[in-house]
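Z., the sequence and structure:
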Amino acid sequence: MPTRIPWDTKRIRRAAKVLAACTTLAVAGPVAVAQAAASAANTGATVHFSGIPEVGALFSSADYTGSSASHFCTATVIDSPAGDLVLTAAHCVWDASAGTYTNSSITFAPGYDNGLDSHLGGAWTVERIDVPDGYKTSGNPADDYAILEIAPRNGLNIEQVTGGLRLATTKLPEKVSVIGYNDLVYDVDGNEPIICRAKAFEETDDGVAWSRFDCPNYQDGTSGGPWIAHGGEVVGVIGGYEQGGDSPDWSYSTIFNAATIEFYTSVAGSS
């Protein structure tokens, strides 16, 4: 991991101003979800939009290199006591067949929209990755979620700047708004997030129940994208069965249950 750089008091004061400005943005997050989802419902299709502060793109370099840098998955700031946790899919960060992490260093860019959002702190460094044992040892798709601990910047933890969405269990069927970043190779507008609102429902494959929603244009890169219900609860992430689905027209998530919350509680207690 890169060495942390000490920040001078002028930068800390400036960060406080950024925090004040971002408080409004964070509160507006669920509103932005509702507005974008309404737009998607009206058009009957997945739409690109300007994003929300809590959701962003993951990059494989700890030092962001500009808009040409290739993001590879989607992640979400989740509410936690320390305010430093981000949720994504386990297959985004861990290769179970090789028994190793997929990237030696990862950067998270909240609110990413054709570039970094300086009001949200720009690019943040992932300093720890937590993957459930079931996925880490055998790649169990039912455990396809992971939590990343984000290093502070300017004396602030990420949730202080972006706000955070609450982790919750899945209750099917329910309406969800799903956000993600398509890989640029599949979507020329992949530097803009996409959103679609649809009913998530239960589907059983290979004897296991999964959460599924049907919306077009969810390509590689949207893995880890949050399934947001009730305006601000994350009840799934794109992943699980077939690592989220083998077609861009439908997507899966593992069903979040008591084990998911227990994993979160364990990670949050040690961060």
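The two ends are 17 Å apart (CA to CA). The mean pLDDT is 85.

Let me know what you think.
H.
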